[in-house]
């Protein structure tokens, strides 16, 4: 998810550089933080060891942490604040998924996706701009040229718009379970682009994750006679898988851009968010279908405002969390959010416990948790 693309920490304890590496990758994969916790830094795994690429990345991340001030030693107050921000992050992540689903359930707003994304990009930029001001000085802004970040800004836009379209045409359960495929997709891209490999037992753990998503995709899209049961349309499935590809490409690209530009995740996002919003302004008149604004009820406007506030809270909370929690805590929190969203999505979907798609949910979530355990153990071994 992440100061999604821009999360760094002020914290009670200093994470290791390898912990930072994973955190950096996580915070670049999703603007709302709902899927970023599943993606490990595959660039750390290359033929069973660490390559020059990883050394360069660690040097950059050490510089990034230096820009954000050295964290203080652990304290009781720091633990309390870390716990507080974890709760805020979890509730905001759940809130943004269900709020966005409610917004997109309104036929008059479902096809105004680009406008909605531009609003979120503006909220992200506003938060980062505020945090970079001398009064707060959480990071030092650095400028890049517009030309340098245009490709990444386009990928960022697709990374937001396609998953939102998936949410609009899918059940919440399918939407969240499908995002599990980010992990194997990023791993595949890293293999073909950078020739990085995973431990064999990690690859094995990803197989049930993929199978589980396939099972959910099939059963969740079957028509049902019960009008109260929320199903996933074929468009929802198409948008989900295309969104996974876009999000995975964005995850891989953003690490490359950070190395190339020698820039931190927050500095990069501060540059690309307004570019993404500006590019969308050219396309919005030709793509979006606008409602009659005067006829949009007040509760929808409040939901849109809440969605932007949830996005800001996710960003802000991740800013404080990253420096205070290690990879294990971060992974556990990520899986907790996935399980909570899937469970609440199932409860609100109208499906019975005996529905066959629940088997796919357990297989997919179990597979990605197993993968995370394997990768944490592997990282601990190679770091000794």
Give the helices and strands, then pairings.
Layout: H1 17-26, H2 52-67, H3 76-104, H4 107-110, H5 113-132, H6 146-168, H7 172-178, H8 182-194, H9 200-220, H10 234-261, H11 265-287, H12 298-321, H13 327-349, H14 357-382
Helix pairs in contact: 1-2, 3-6, 3-12, 3-13, 5-6, 5-11, 5-12, 6-10, 6-11, 7-13, 8-10, 9-14, 13-14
- Our Rg estimate from Cα atoms comes to 20 Å
The number of domains: 1
Number of helices: 14
Topology as H/E string?
A: HHHHHHHHHHHHHH
Largest sheet geometry:
none
Strand content: under 5%
Helix content: 55-70%
Cα shape: globular
Helix/strand-derived category reads mainly alpha
Secondary structure: number of strands: 0
Explain what you see:
With 384 residues, the chain is mainly alpha-helical. Helices cover 70% and strands 0% of the residues. Helix 6 runs antiparallel to helix 10. The chain is globular.
């Amino acid at each position: 998810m992440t100061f999604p693309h821009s999360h760094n920490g002020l914290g009670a304890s200093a994470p290791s550089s390898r912990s930072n590496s994973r955190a950096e990758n996580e915070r670049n994969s999703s603007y709302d933080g709902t899927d970023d916790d599943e993606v490990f830094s595959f660039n750390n795994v290359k033929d069973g060891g660490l390559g020059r690429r990883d050394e360069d990345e660690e040097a950059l991340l050490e510089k990034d942490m230096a820009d954000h001030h050295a964290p203080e030693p652990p304290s009781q107050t720091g633990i309390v604040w870390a716990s507080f921000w974890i709760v805020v992050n979890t509730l905001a992540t759940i809130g943004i998924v269900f709020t966005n689903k409610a917004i997109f359930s309104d036929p008059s707003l479902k096809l105004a996706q680009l406008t909605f994304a531009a609003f979120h990009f503006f909220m992200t930029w506003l938060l980062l701009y505020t945090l970079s001001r001398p009064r707060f000085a959480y990071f030092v802004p650095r400028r890049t040229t517009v030309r340098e970040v245009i490709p990444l800004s386009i990928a960022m836009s697709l990374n937001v718009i396609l998953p939102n379209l998936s949410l609009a045409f899918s059940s919440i359960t399918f939407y969240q379970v499908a995002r599990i495929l980010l992990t194997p997709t990023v791993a595949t891209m890293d293999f073909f682009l950078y020739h990085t490999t995973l431990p064999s037992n990690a690859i094995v753990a990803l197989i049930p994750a993929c199978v589980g998503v396939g099972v959910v995709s099939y059963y969740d899209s079957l028509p049902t006679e019960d009008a109260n049961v929320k199903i996933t349309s074929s468009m929802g499935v198409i948008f989900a898988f295309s969104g996974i590809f876009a999000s995975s490409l964005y995850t891989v690209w953003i690490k490359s851009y950070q190395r190339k530009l020698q820039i931190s995740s927050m500095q990069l996002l501060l540059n690309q968010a307004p570019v993404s919003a500006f590019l969308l302004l050219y396309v919005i008149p030709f793509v979006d279908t606008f409602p009659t604004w005067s006829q949009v009820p007040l509760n929808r406007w409040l939901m849109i405002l809440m969605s932007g506030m949830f996005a800001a809270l996710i960003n802000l909370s991740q800013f404080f969390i990253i420096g205070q929690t290690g990879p294990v805590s971060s992974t556990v929190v990520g899986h907790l959010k996935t399980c909570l969203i899937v469970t609440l999505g199932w409860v609100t979907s109208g499906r019975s416990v005996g529905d066959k798609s629940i088997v796919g949910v357990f297989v997919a979530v179990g597979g990605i948790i197993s993968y995370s355990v394997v990768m944490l153990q592997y990282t601990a071994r190679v770091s000794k």
